[in-house]
Each structure stands twice: as C-alpha cells, then as structure tokens.
Amino acid sequence: xxxxxxxxxxxxxxxxxxxxxxxxxxxxxxxxxxxxxxxxxxxxxxxxxxxxxxxxxxxxxxxxxxxxxxxxxxxxxxxxxxxxxxxxxxxxxxxxxxxxxxxxxxxxxxxxxxxxxxxxxxxxxxxxxxxxxxxxxxxxxxxxxxxxxxxxxxxxxxxxxxxxxxxxxxxxxxxxxxxxxxxxxxxxxxxxxxxxxxxxxxxxxxxxxxxxxxxxxxxxxxxxxxxxxxxxxxxxxxxxxxxxxxxxxxxxxxxxxxxxxxxxxxxxxxxxxxxxxxxxxxxxxxxxxxxxxxxxxxxxxxxxxxxxxxxxxxxxxxxxxxxxxxxxxxxxxxxxxxxxxxxxxxxxxxxxxxxxxxxxxxxxxxxxxxxxxxxxxxxxxxxxxxxxxxxxxxxxxxxxxxxxxxxxxxxxxxxxxxxxxxxxxxxxxxxxxxxxxxxxxxxxxxxxxxxxxxxxxxxxxxxxxxxxxxxxxxxxxx
Length: 478
Description:
- The structure is a single chain.
- The chain is α/β, with parallel strands linked by helices.
- The chain contains 21 helices and 19 strands.
C-alpha cells in the first residue's frame, strides 16, 4: 500500500512539474497554454512529450538575416526603391488614417512602395497559365518557394518547363516544405536535379523532428522571375487547384501577380529561405535588378510573419485594418480560427453598424479544421456578422477587404497557425481598381454561397456541438 501511494505521489508530482514547464513556455499565448495543459492532463506524460517535440521555436533564421544585413545588402536594395516620405504616402492613401499607416509601416523592414503593377489571378487556370508564361520568358533566374508541390499533371508541366529553362542556362531554384510536400516523390526531385534545377526541402520531417521544429512550417507560395515579376497568394502547385480533386470539386482561390518594387520583398523572403534550407547565401545584387523610374504607381506593402519574429506582423496588420473600417469588412478564408482580439474586433465592428461579411467553406478539405471553424461562428452571428458557406466547391482564397481603402491577398489563413507558427506573406493593396476587382470576385462568391442564420445554426445537434468544442480546444495547433 505504501508503495502504491509513493508511486501515485511521484506520478502527480510529475504532472505538476510538467504543468509548470508548460506554463513557463506558453505564458504569452493563453489559448495554447490552455490547450497544452488540457492535453497534458488528459494524456499524462504523452501530451508533455508531444509538446516538447513540437513546441520549439525556430530562431536561427533570424541570424541568417542579420548576417545579410551586416553586409549592407538591404540598404543597397532600398536605395533603388521609390520610397516616399510618410506624409506623402499618407496624403495619397491615409489622409484620415494616420494610425493605420503608422502601424503598417512600424515593423522594421516593412515599407509601402508606390511603383507597382498588380494583377488579380482568380482560380488555378489563370494562375498557372500566367506563372508558366512568365517562366517561359525568364532570362536570368526562376525562384519558386512553395508549401506544396505535387507530382501530378500540373506538377509535371512545371518539371518539364523548369528543366528546359535550366538547360538554356537560366538559374532555377526550388524550395518545398517538408510537411506540405511530404507526398512529393523522390523521383520527381531527382529529375529536377538531373535537369539542372537546384531543389531543396525546407525542414525535412526527419530533421524537423530531431530539432523539435516540426510545428514550424514554410507556408509560402512565392514565385519570382528575373527579380521583376513576383507571385503570391493561396495556390500551391497541384492538380487540386484546377478542380481535379474528386472530393472537393471546383477549387476557388486567389493569387496575385506583382511587378515593380514590391517584388524586392518577395525576393528577400526567398533569399532568406534559401540561405536557411540550402545553406547558400546568394548575392542580392544579382537577383534584385534596378527598376526604372516612372511607370505604374500602385501602392503595395508586403507583410511577412513567422515564428522567428518577435511579434505577429500579419495578425497586427489585419487587426489594424479591421479596426479602421468605417463601412464594410469582407473576409474570405478557408480556415477561421481567429485570435481572440481579431474575433472581438470583427464582432465589435458589426455591433457598431459596419457591414461585416465572412465566407467560409461549405465542404472541408480537413474535417477537424472545419469543426474548429464552426465553433467560432455563433459569436459572429450573435454580433450581427453575416456568415456564408461556399457551395460551388471548396474555397481556399485568403482575402480581406476593408472599405475601399485596403485589401489583403496572401498565404495566411485566418487562424492561429498562420499568425504564430508558419512562415507566411501577405500583400496589402491600396489601389482602387485592384480593390474593385476583388470586390467583384467577392460578390460572385456570395452568389455561390449560402447564408447561415443564427436560428438555424443554433439548431445543430449536440453531437455537432461536442465535435466543435473539442476541435476548438485543439484550434491553436490546427
């Protein structure tokens, strides 16, 4: 009996020690803290082991950037930008929103550029046709940085064209995430390399597990061609983006083509990722060509975020934009697992009379994530937010529209993983014509969606509510 009591005391003392360690690690993120404490108590020792395996934050990528900065390459790049004084940009875009402008440009290295031309690419066909055409016309280099690359029909088209360009002497580099591209065949990568393409995996699973970095994923969807044309948005390289996934059917997504000074920022992100994954520091002067004066005058801000950053720049810019709204907030997202502050901002905006509309999927690519998304819907509906579920297929676009003032298109979902754990990049857009185009897409998406009412949503079964509650508990990890 004494031995049993001793064993029990040791067991519970171990739980207390585990809880104390978790509190120390997650004290700055209450949602994660609550989730990990619950898991560690429900799964004693196993939950703690998983936390230790997944929970380390990647910091070495910061050192890579600092080594670049010490060489003065960021200053060299900035010297070729059409950088304006804050007051000048404010007079053009932020005459009444100086607080928003200050926040958007407060992050070191975050700068609004004016000399840009943007093009909205709606859905996979337009996206792939445009990117493949740009690759065909490449003269100097092709840089691709994707979360997922698949060995399927569209993936094979990329493979053939990229190896052909490499044979012409064009420098071709590809990065793919170790988890997002876990199904990418070895033969595909071997064919790339045999064809002269330099290809590397960002944190391969075995390396990520060994270094306890499995939770830090590179969620990028970046393409940079010759340092003058860039692409960013929701689409990876795979047949599902062309609607060829039987379960999901039609795939609704948004990508952005950029030309001009904003491409420097996409190139910077690629060079940082390449230095980390490939161990090679490329000379920025070779890949950031000077852009001629004059030309288009669209304002663009590239906002990047990741676990190696001290703050959460994408979350902060979205919160600031939502808080600045005066008439409307339109949001499209495949995964809605918001930070508490952002959820409160949306609810408060709706209560104050602002037209807040949110489009989420009707069909899920991941059922657990959909349950987590639905667990946040009732507070929105109760506050007057109009919520719609897309019915035409699967909606994967990540778009935010605030008044006629600002829009965001990028890789970041409206979830805590994108805000805190993944490497993400969004483009903030300020041109009225571009925002109008996104408006038209959103209007069409509304026609292809079904509105949820508070009364009907409250009538869902107890089983569904239980699934949602459990999923919400896990939401910080989804």
